[in-house]
Structures are given as structure tokens and as C-alpha cells.
């Protein structure tokens, strides 16, 4: 039903993940921080705890050029300006000093506005190429603050009107300021505020903000109502690093221990959180004892001693190591479970996964159904394989004429006399060999596949039989996430092999018949998993196909999942693996759906308009891919 469509969203908007990835790469390069992540929020933000910066949604619903340049201006400000030029120590001192002031919010927001003005000029001088983006930013925000001044003045939000008035004074000049009774109250402050052109650091910005608020506070009835900058909201909390209970609370986030710049704060926070991942920090030291151990049973270890006790682990990581102190959620998982960690992307660090073979369906009903389907598909399989072998044979016997070396062509001997540059030789191609290709097929095992599972099995069976006949190595895997067991700390995923690379031409039709729907699908993680299987293969042509009926959907993996999947596709392409997507749908795909998949997979996505056409689209896809391999041999 239409109302159950997975693509309907509250604001009916989708991010462009490929464009976001480009912005994120730019942010990483400008800040020289590979771990930095980029997202989009209401206001620009810096979030050290999450290793994240955020662009503003202010730039949405504008022309493409303005949106692009506006977002670039956010990135320039955050990853160059505030990143290295903003003084965190001074900011924390100000927050502490004015925490009880009646207009503390206005002071903070005005200080950030002055800093923004200063840093735009700093960044422009360092990188003149940013000028166009900042010009676009000024024009857009000038129009916005003109409107805000009128609205806030009408509503009686005097502090908000004052902030907009000063923004216009700084960026548009004193002459073009709005004229009204409210504006007349602010005019005496303009002489003082002209010092904004002489501000050179964060200390001076804060000092000017404080003096300006003190000069106008007699006209103010209350503090700011709205937020204009969320930039530093997370800084005080981020500067307080974790201490164990037994440690004396003496320097937790105070001004003497504050980092000087955002860059230092980010790097220190990243280093601290990385170190806290170790097992050695799972315990809290409440008290230490100098001298000998209290235990009388301890003895010095000797090289030849026998093992007296064995520890039993719970879950293993991707390298096979076992840890004793995993969380209770992880301890419940099977012993074969592996931890994804950062090897599979930032969005999947809490994923744990299990790899297993699916149990073949050996009941009479599935055996009979397999026989019926193969009988139906037999003409298509034979036609495809015959077509491919014919094309391969034609390429084998084709010979290249008019060469300067090779085998002598007796019919061209006269060219030795008649031609100035004779080419009487020809050369046959090398004898045919098996196609140098490998295929990986990922099948969405989520619950939404339930109404199209039989047609999916038919398409997968055709895929399997054609590649077996062509003796092409391939792997078929179903992937899904356990939605009922997933938590913020642990997201259990499963990969079920229907056919492994090592199986060669083995018939795994009964395993395909055992395919069943489960819960959620974490597509970006699955693509990286299959990429790991394929990237070290020796075959010249490597293809990764994904059969899916919708967008990524898993625990805390909505918009993040779209971006993560697009990033995984780009990573696979960098390793020489071509990713293709087949959208399985029971009805005609909407423009929004098609646009979404184009943003994730580029041009390498095709769709089936109905369940009856899954097999037909699979045939077209296979014909195209194998033809490419044959022509490239």
C-alpha cells in the first residue's frame, strides 16, 4: 500500500549522499583530520565528542549554486576558521564568568557573530578562492536578518532585533541600516560597535560583545528568544574528560586545562576516546596499595609452568581474538560472532556479525518447486550460455590482418612488390580460456522482501545457473540485521552463504530455495563485507551485485545509512569492483525512489517494474555484464 511506502518521509526530502561525501572529504582535507565527519543540522555546529561538524539547513530550498556556495562557506568557517583560530580557553572563561548574567545568551551569540565576521576575513586572506562562497553567504544572511529584524521588532523581541541590527551594521554598513523606532534605540551603540573592524582574536571579540551588551541593556527586557549560532554549545562538556571515581576531582574541565583551539580539542578528544576502547579501562581503580600484593597464593611465573586455569571468551573480533570483558549483549551472541569496528565504516562500529551457511531446503515441496523453476528457466539459461560461447568462439577464430609481423598470408604476397609499406602478415588470438571474472551477489534479507521472495529466488537461481554453466566463480549471500536484538551498543548482523567462492560449479539450488526474509538491512556494511571477499581476488573483472527492494533500514541507520551506503559503493569502485544495484519492486518505482538510488549507486542501478519481471531484468543485467567481460578479454 502507498501509505506503507518506506520512502515517505515527514519533510519529503532526501540528502544527496555523494555530494555530502564530497563535502566531507573537503572538510577532512581542510582540517587535516581523517576522522572528521560532516552532517547537516539546523545551525552550524562543532561536536568534538562525535568527531563531527555540521552544516546548516539554512541553505536548503535555494538555487543549486547558492546552496553549494553557502554550504562551502559553512565548511570553510568550521574547518579552517573556527578550527584553528578560535580560542577555547578564553571562551570557557567567559562562559564561567557570565553564567548567571541576565543577558548571557545575547553575549554568547553576539561574540560568535563577531567571531564569524573576523574569521571570514581571516579565511579569505589565507585562501582567496573562498571569496565567492563568503560573498554568497553575506548576501543570503543580510536578507535573512533584514526580515528577522522586522519580525522580531513587531513581536517585541528586542534582543533578537538588536543582534540582527548589528549583523547588518557589520556586513552591509552603517548607512543602509533599517529605520524604525526600535532601530533608533540601537543607534547610540554603533560608534562603539565600529571596533569590530579592529578585532584580531577571540578575546577581543568577547570583550566587544560584553561592552556592546552593557551599553544597550537598559533598553532590553529579556534575553534572546531564538538561537542563531549553536556552534559552541558542546565545547564546555567536551572539555571535561572522564575520570574514574577514585581519582580526585581537581582539574575536570577548568580553564587551566582547557585546550587552546578547536583543533587541539578534537584531536585530544579523539585520542582519549580511542584509548578508552582498551580492556585496561574497563575497571576503575579506587585505591592503590604500595608494597607487596595482598594475596599469599601468588608466585613468580616460570617458563616451564603448566597452565592452571583457562579463561573463556564470548565474542571474537574480526581478527579472531577473544575478549573476556565484553558487554552482556555481546555475551549472548554466538561464539562465531565477529566485531565490525571501524574496518566497516564509522556508522557500523557497533555492529557484530555472524557468517554461516544457510541450511539447504530438502523438503519435498521445495525440491519439486526447484525442478519446476529450472524447467521454466532452462530455455533462457541455454540461450544465454549459447550466445556467450558463440561470441567467445568468434573471438577465438578471428584473425588480425595487415600486420608488420606474425604469420605470412600467402594471398598478400603481391603487396611486398606493390606497396611502399607492405603488411602481409596476420596473427590469431590466443586460445580461449575461461572468462576472467568473479561475481558477488548480495540479497537483501529484510522483512519487506516477504511479498517478493519467490520471484527473488527465481532471479537468484537463474543468476546461479548461468554462472555455473559459464564456469564463472561467484558468491551469493543473504544479509540482514536482527531488529529485535539491536541496541545502541550492539547491532547483530548475519550473512548467510547460499553459494561460496570456493564452491566452484557446485549446484546450490536447494540453498537458494531456503532463502527467507528476516528484519532489517544495513546495506553499506554488507557492501563493505562483500568488498572484503572480492578485493584480493586475482580475476581481472570483479562485480558486486545487490538485490534490494528499498533504502537502507536498520538501527540508527536512516539518513546515515544512505550516506554510508554511497560511501561504501565509492570505496568498492576504488578497489576496482563494479557495483550494480537491482531494485526489486512490486510496482512502478517513483521518481523519488529512482533519484535516491541514482544518488547512492550512480548510473549503475536498474529497476524491475513488477515482480514478474525480476528474472527478465536479471537476464538483461547478466547479458550486459558478461558481454563486457568477453569484449575486454
Can you walk through the features of this model?
With 633 residues, the chain is of the alpha/beta class. Helices cover 43% and strands 12% of the residues. The protein is built from 20 helices and 14 strands. The strands form three sheets. The protein has an eight-stranded mixed β-sheet, sandwiched between helices. A three-stranded mixed β-sheet has the order 1-3-2, with helices on one face. Strands 6-8-7 form a three-stranded antiparallel β-sheet. α18 links the parallel β12 and β13. α4 runs antiparallel to α9 and α5 runs antiparallel to α6. The longest helix is centred in the middle third of the chain and has 34 residues. The radius of gyration is 32 Å and the shape is elongated. It starts with 16 loop residues before the first helix and ends with a helix. The N terminus is likely disordered.
Strand count, sense and barrel status of the largest sheet are:
8 strands, mixed
What would the principal axes of the Cα set say about the shape?
A: elongated
Fraction of residues in helices?
A: 40-55%
Major beta sheet, strand line-up: 4-5-11-10-9-12-13-14
Report the strand count: 14
Radius of gyration equals 32 Å
Enumerate how many helices there are, as a single number.
20
How confident is the prediction overall: mean pLDDT?
Answer: 81
Q: Which class best fits the helix and strand makeup?
A: alpha/beta
How far apart the termini lie comes to 47 Å
Low-pLDDT parts are: 1-12, 240-258, 275-315, 318-325
Give the percentage of residues in beta strands: 5-15%
